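Batch manifest line 285
LIGAND: phosphoribosyl ATP
JOB: complex structure
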Amino acid sequence: MQKLKLAIQKKGRLSEESIKLINECDISFPNSSGKLVTAAYDFPIEILFLRDDDIPDYVQDGVADIGIVGENVLVESNKKVDEVLKMGFGKCRLSLAVPRNMQYNSINDLANTSIATSYPRILQNYLDAKNVKADIHVISGSVEIAPSIGLATAICDIVSTGSTLLSNGLKEVEQIFQSEAILVKHKNLSTEKNEILNNLLFRLEAVKRAQKNKYILLNAPNESLPKIFDLLPGINAPTVQALSKQGWSSVHSVITQKDFWEKIQQLKEAGAEGILVMPIEKLIY
Ligand code: PRT
Ligand code: ZN
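JOB STATUS: finished
ARTIFACT:
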């Protein structure tokens, strides 16, 4: 039987979350430290541990069938692969930043300056779209020190919390690209491999959906139920069971993580008591 080859980052910001998500799909593999490739025990998949920059290339060439990589790396690489699923982690942005004391009103202020970056392609596309000509200085690491050593006027780099910019005396002036980890696939997978991928996607989606929702149990007097039902659209109508306490019911439902605290408050105000909230492991529609 064929195995689907999945490339993930060997060591770095996406490694832990990638492995965690695979494990949550009930796919386990031996401790991988130091290995380039390992096979899962309980799913027809092989995991390749690579540098993130190599993943788009490997997937394009079919050395790996699928891969998890940052959209920033993928777009910069310009490799031909299909995007399958946004993973919901590794979120960051690619931004332009300048020294804090520089007057900055618009991107036109960067015309004819030099900008240091590890993302020349994305930056060039952005500058072209804005009709700004600047000299792009490609460096592979520690981009944030370029202005202070006189290498460039501005930088274009990944920002997450902004603390790296702050501690280097820089300010973020334009966000040019939003990124998160994404699952990509080789353009021509065999039917058999596509089938394995679909099984994996079914699991991944159930896990991701579960992470976005919570299971909720509450008690309420029967006269409050109509108001409570209005607050609980859920995936199905909520389950209602009579309590031994006369005139009271227990309600079970699923609510989204997004507006969770607001909903709990509203449920309380509507008469709910003894609200119990639990994580969901898998959620399948
Ligand atoms: O060794 P390998 O080549 O595999 O790893 P790498 O060092 O190239 O990549 P790594 O592990 O640093 O990042 C992998 C991916 O994580 C990136 O391609 C992004 O898609 C994503 N990601 C998410 C980030 C960040 N957040 C991030 N904060 N990548 C880098 N950073 C760096 C950024 O370059 C800057 O130096 O963190 C600094 C800024 O962070 P803040 O929080 O100070 O703003
Ligand atoms: Zn890298």
